[in-house]
Amino acid sequence: MRPGLFVLSATVGLSISVFSLSALAAGEKREDDGKWLTPDDTITYNVKEDGAVDWYTYNGFRRYHSECHVCHGPDGMGSTYAPALIDSIKNLDYYDFAEVVMSGRERKLADGSSSIMPAFGDNKNVSCYGEDIYAYLLARADGAIERGRPRKRDAKPEGAKETESACH
Ligand code: HEC
C-alpha cells in the first residue's frame, strides 16, 4: 500500500463592496476610484475640507491652461476673443461641451468675419481629458475653487493611469 498525499488548497477570495448609503440619497454625487460622478453618471468635481481637489479636476486645470487659456483666458474667465467658459459651462451638459470641444464650431459674425472654436478631436492632450477639463470648469463655475493652481490634490487613481495609457 502506497502512502497517499493529499494537499488541499483553498483560496477564498473575498470582495467587499463598501458604499455609503447616504450617497444614494437623491441628487448626491458619488466617488468611483477617485472620480466623482453625478447621479446620472457624468463627471463632476470634489473638493475636500482641507482644499484638496480630486485628481481629475486638478488635471483639468493643467490641461485647460496648456490648451484653452490662450483664447478663453486664465481660469476660464474669458477674453475679448472667446467666451468665459465658467459661464458657458452653466448651460452646457458634458455631452454638449464634448461635442463643441472635439468637433469645433464656427459662427459668422455681423461684420462678415467668423468666430472660430477649433476642433480638438485630434489633440490627445485634450481628447483624452475632456472630462477632466469639464470637471475643472464646473468647479470654477460653482466657486468651489479659487483662481490659480489648486494648492492640494488627491493622488492619481489607478483608473486614470490605465485610461491614459489606453488613450495615448
Ligand atoms: C484659438 C482660440 C481657441 C482655443 C485655443 C480654444 N477655444 Fe473654445 N472657443 C473659441 C471661440 C472663438 C469660441 C466661440 C465660438 C462661437 O462664437 O460660437 C469658443 C467656444 C467654445 C465653447 C462653447 C462656448 C459656448 O458658450 O457655447 C466651448 C465649450 C469651448 N470653446 C471650449 C474650449 C476648450 C475646452 C478649449 C481647450 C481644450 C478651447 N475651447 C480652446 C476659441 C478657442
In the CATH hierarchy, the architecture of the domain at 29-92 and 129-167 is Orthogonal Bundle
Spatial strand arrangement across the major sheet:
1-2-3
Low-confidence stretches: 3-23
Q: Could you state the order of secondary-structure elements as H and E?
A: EEEEHHHHEEHHEH
User: What is the terminal separation in angstroms?
Assistant: 63 Å
CATH topology of the domain at 29-92 and 129-167: Cytochrome Bc1 Complex, Chain D, domain 2
Counting DSSP H or I runs of 4 or more residues, the number of helices is 7
Taken from the alpha-carbon principal axes, the silhouette is globular
Structure explained in plain terms:
The protein has a domain of 103 residues: Cytochrome Bc1 Complex, Chain D, domain 2 (Orthogonal Bundle). The strands form three sheets. A three-stranded antiparallel β-sheet has the order 1-2-3. By secondary structure, it is α+β, with helices and mostly antiparallel strands. Helix 1 packs across helix 6. The longest helix is centred in the middle third of the chain and has 13 residues. Heme C binds next to helix 2, helix 3, helix 4, strand 5 and strand 6.
